[in-house]
Fold these 2 entries.
Entry 1:
Amino acid sequence: MGVDQQQSIEKARLALENGGNVVVLTGSGVSAESNIPTFRGGGAETMAALWADFDPRTLATPEAFEADPGLVTRWYDWRRLMCLRAEPNPGHLALAALQKRVEGAGRRFTLLTQNVDGLHQRAGSTGVVELHGSIMRWRGVRSGAPAVLPEGPFDSYPPTLDNGELIRPSVVWFGEALPGDAVRAAGEVLRSCGVFLSIGTSSVVYPAAGFIDDARRAGAVTIEVNPESTAISGVVDICLRGAAGGVLPAFVGGG
Ligand code: BJW
């Protein structure tokens, strides 16, 4: 590890020790080391030939579902099963350990995730705010009735409820509103945020991409963990360059 990175890690460690309420925002990069492809970067080896010709940005839309519900649900079911088989990695575990430490010191800790894979919860994080829903819950498109999911793939695509109603994953597609309770929870904790960590997200999808501005308005120390430069790298106080599974255990402990 370079001297600069070591200094940044020390600065981040100090900010976390002294910095009031902690808000963490995660994106798909935090699950990359669990072999789940990032949303935009793909991950050619895991994205597999089967789906290589499809762009997630066009599949994750109400229009795509309307045009071809069979294709879209097959893609989501393939991803659901990949998430079920995946295990939390040292980055997820370090965040769960950080939460215990911060809360043990009587401070507030909130994990806001854009991820739909459920890996933070499986790593032991509690009270996780799922901004973009979950791929592990599906519902009727009209009634919203929860669907019972098979352990393996659905028998056929598009899958339906017993009454024939189409079902879809309870995720948030482009152009759809985020769950109101998640947006309210995020707004509330960001207003009193002392330290803001953005981990494994390209910070291009709103409203989550705007949380950095809320955190800065609250006077928070802002920290980014990402191997690449992102849309917010220029405005954060501390940039930690590297994979979440390597960097997070190094400065928050656990993992
Ligand atoms: C690593 C790593 C390692 C690699 N360790 N890091 C304001 C301005 C402009 C546009 C808008 C705006 N407000 C709203 C919009 C429109 C739109 C939007 O933001 N568009 C932009 C693309 C321009 N937003 C919406 O439509 C949202 N809805 C909305 O605002 O509704 C308003 C409304 C109100 C009332 C009524 C109706 C409407 C909804 C957004 C929903 C996003 N949904 C998705 C799909 C979820 C389901 C699924 O998974 O299929 O969420 S899109 C996709 O992007 C997914 C992700 O959660 C999200 C963010 O992506 P993420 O996680 O950042 O992934 P990547 O791939 O971009 O980045 C990965 C990063 O990891 C990279 O930086 C790597 O370097 C890094 N990395 N390995 C750490 N090991």
Entry 2:
Amino acid sequence: MSKCIFCKIANGQMPAHIRYEDDEVVAFDDINPKAPFHVLIVPKKHLKNLNDTAKIDQDLLGHLLLIAQKVAEEAKIADNGYKIVINNGKESGQLVDHLHLHLLGGKLLARMAV
Ligand code: 5GP
Ligand code: ZN
């Protein structure tokens, strides 16, 4: 059984506030939000980070971005703007070793360090 917390959320073993789900992706609220709106967009396939992806993941990577757009529109933050962040590896601050997009919005983020 996987010890990865995002795999556990993706397969329903761990609770989260789910905003969107399909066969490939799940989007849920970050447990420690850094903005009024902070959702994590996560592939169900366990990929450690971008370094762990390849050509075979091209459609999945595009899908993650389109789901980010959809979740932002549904949350009504799309018009005001939002920020997408992908931390990749230890010097980026990546803490959870399962690829995820941060979708941040709901306040002025122009000066936010990424
Ligand atoms: P990273 O630093 O790896 O890019 O971001 C990991 C994110 O996952 C952090 O923003 C953190 O608050 C969030 N996180 C960590 N554990 C959990 C959890 O158990 N549930 C949820 N919903 N978010 C989590
Ligand atoms: Zn995982």
